[in-house]
Design brief:
By secondary structure, the protein is of the alpha/beta class. The chain is 47% helix and 13% strand.
Length: 257
């Protein structure tokens, strides 16, 4: 297929490299970036083409709407796909606004390992605008043999935002625990490694990391009691307990609603 990449920063350049390797003709548009490692893999253009089979938008989120507007005005053919991390609801809103098909295909790349990650993603998410285009995007990645999930545009946008927020939360969580460990003169690394977060979260089997509760607060004999104990020892050692008191307050609130 003829694949157009608009925006050749970290995400766009990696996507261009992948599409070339998978055997597609790649067209790249970016007034500012022509990364050296894709020079021989991409045909650079001074203005976006209109006959691409698929156009991936990989620009900063603040100009995604402008890029879609430009493509509409140019009467661009083929499927448009937002790959930028856009505000939740953007892809569907733009699709409805312009009465065109736009899908969402979020990336989960680490900047320092972008090329490895684009060829070895943990999973591929496709927010389809329709089943036909969902199948088209699925087929694009088929030869990678990576598990692919199809959902709505808004669901995949939400997953990307929540995924990054979870990472931010976990970094903050462990920084907070590190403060406590330093105060107690014990090794945070040992606590983390021996706790083994993956086993801790999935010790009860396929329960979706808590998602199965769907609005119900945590309960039982252990969780409320042990959270309270953690809050107490944090406060006794003058370590910030905001995260954990907020968790406690939130769950106490939804118990009564």
């Amino acid at each position: 297929m003829k694949i157009q990449i608009i925006g050749l920063g970290v995400v766009g350049a990696a996507q261009a490299d992948l599409m070339h390797t998978l055997g597609h003709k790649v067209i790249g548009y970016d007034p500012y970036n022509h990364p050296a490692f894709i020079q021989e893999k991409v045909t650079f253009v001074e203005t976006p083409i209109t006959d691409a089979d698929i156009t991936f938008i990989c620009v900063p989120e603040t100009i995604v709407e402008d890029i879609v507007q430009m493509l509409v005005e140019k009467k661009s053919q083929g499927l448009i796909v937002t790959k930028s991390t856009v505000p939740i609801g953007t892809t569907r809103k733009l699709s409805e606004k312009h009465s065109i098909h736009i899908s969402n295909n979020p990336e989960f790349l680490r900047e320092e390992h972008v090329i490895y990650d684009v060829y070895n993603p943990g999973r591929i998410l496709i927010g389809e605008c329709c089943p036909t285009h969902g199948k088209l995007l699925s087929s694009l990645y088929e030869s990678l043999h990576i598990e692919t999930f199809i959902a709505s545009q808004t669901e995949t946008e939400t997953i990307k935002i929540v995924s990054n927020t979870l990472k931010a939360y976990m970094i903050t969580f462990w920084n907070n625990i590190n403060e406590l460990c330093e105060t107690l003169d014990i090794s945070t690394k040992n606590v983390s490694n021996l706790l083994n977060p993956e086993k801790t979260l999935y010790v009860w089997g396929d329960w979706g990391g808590g998602a199965k509760f769907f609005g119900k607060p945590y309960s039982g004999k252990c969780l409320p009691k042990d959270l309270k104990q953690l809050i107490n020892i944090l406060q006794e050692n003058n370590v910030d307990s905001t995260i954990f008191t907020t968790i406690q307050e939130y769950n106490n609130r939804i118990k009564t609603t």
